[in-house]
Amino acid sequence: MGMSVTTSVATEDDAERILKLQFLCYQGEAELYGDWAIDPLTQTLESLRAELKEHHVLVARLGDEVVGSVRGWVDADGVGRIGRLMVHPRMQRHGLGSRLLSAMERQLASGPRPLTGYRLFTGHRSVGNLRLYQRLGYRQTQVEEINTKLSFIVLEKQVAQPAEQLAATA
Hints:
By secondary structure, this protein is an alpha+beta fold. 36% of the residues lie in helices and 31% in strands.
């Protein structure tokens, strides 16, 4: 009998498992760009624990195993910032990344401040990531050249206005 993957808010007890998953998941990105000093591979457990307190962090679980995670927060301009979306390599291409991203969008939208949209970024060679984000409604808004090997593609998605706001502006 198979198990279902569940999504929930991460706890401090998840920190080590998230960091191990992050290290595994970002190996491919490091290889793609020829840089094993990227932030996801050098993040410390202490800084991840701080993120768990300061930001929204969701995890996907298969039984007790953390097989996916995503982080987010709302900035001062009301933009939901989403990052570190990761899915265990053996669980990829089953819709888990889409589920995690959608769950984070809902998490950020349920907060006290109204959102104007969502923003995330990925490396210019990360074709699979770009395809996923575009399929989920994100559109490229800028390119930030980090160095000669890496540019970040920034993508944004607008928040749909509730029907009552649309009626008030008509």
